[in-house]
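Subject: for your reference before the review

Hello V.,

The reviewers asked for a structural picture of the protein, and I figured it would be easier to keep everything in one thread rather than splitting it across files. Below is the amino acid sequence we used in the manuscript, unchanged from the supplementary table.
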Amino acid sequence: MNKGELVELMAVKAETTPKAANALLDAFLDCVTQAVADGEKVTLVGFGSWEARDRKAREGRNPKTGDKMEIPATTVPAFSAGKQFKEAVAGSK
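And here is what came back from the structure prediction:
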């Protein structure tokens, strides 16, 4: 499912226009992105949570040459699925 398909489905479920659903989805994504970038954890009970995690510096290899290289430490976004989300996905198979 891509963003357009998600917006269409949201519009149907919320009984609104695709334009309004798109605006709400964009606002949601902007809010989560900004909060995580500011170091906050965003939690939707049952669905999951987003947070920033620190990744340590490590040694890697250049895939073309095989030479060793240092990969610097960085902060990355992370998502952890909630219990209800996990159960829904596991139960769908």
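For the response letter, the relevant points are probably these. The domain at 41-93 is CATH 4.10.520.10 (HU Protein; Chain A). The chain has two domains: 1-40, 41-93.

Happy to draft the paragraph if you're swamped.

O.
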